[in-house]
Amino acid sequence: MAPAENLKKRKIAVLGARSVGKSSLIVQFIENQFVESYYPTIENTFAKSVKYRGAEYDCEVIDTAGQDEFSILNSKHAIGIHGYVLVYSVTSRASLDMIQVVYDKIIDFCGVTDIPCVIVGSKVDLEHSRQVSPAEGEKLAQEMKAGWVETSAKTNLNVAKVFELCLAEIEKRAPRNQTGEPQASRCVIM
Ligand SMILES: Nc1nc2c(ncn2[C@@H]2O[C@H](COP(=O)(O)OP(=O)(O)OP(=O)(O)O)[C@@H](O)[C@H]2O)c(=O)[nH]1
């Protein structure tokens, strides 16, 4: 049995196509600021304590490099991860398509049928450049049995909600996660 304090540690990986606003979403959540300039991410880890349903969760948020159809899923982004935030930009249809690609790679890697996951449509402040309707984003999330929300890191719209929804998706599957260990990191001896 894992020590009680480990039960509230949650590792969340944020994935999606390049430049969709993954880092901006995380930096707004952790540091309450928005940076207009673009610096491609290699990898970054952030920590924040989040209160959800009266309990304090120690969240480790992993910011990843943008993915494309050819990138190989880094095992660090599958093993030991409790929940996923998959980000597309509402201004890019191609980035929505990338969600399915990344999702399938995680499912394949972990050998599971579904994962605790939130699909995020970012950059809603750029309404004039919208290419993906809310209904399309929500439909994809339903197919994946995932949470869904549209955000703006620029105006701080729904940013905290992303991580609350992710904790909700993780806790929904609580029987699997009661030991504090996500499914893909367990070893079963037959
Ligand atoms: N208008 C607007 N711009 C945004 C928003 N979020 C991010 N951006 C801009 O989009 C660009 C890319 O943002 P990043 O957060 O670096 O994107 P990323 O997904 O982390 O990029 P990679 O590290 O390459 O994968 C930056 O110029 C941001 O300022 C948003 O909510 N609204």
TrEMBL record:
Pfam families: Ras. It comes from the Eukaryota. It is a lipid-anchor. GO terms for biological process: signal transduction. Keywords: GTP-binding, Hydrolase, Lipoprotein, Magnesium, Membrane, Metal-binding, Methylation, Nucleotide-binding, Prenylation. GO terms for cellular component: plasma membrane. GO terms for molecular function: GTP binding; GTPase activity; metal ion binding. It catalyses: GTP + H2O = GDP + phosphate + H(+). This is Rheb small monomeric GTPase RhbA. It comes from Dendrothele bispora (strain CBS 962.96).
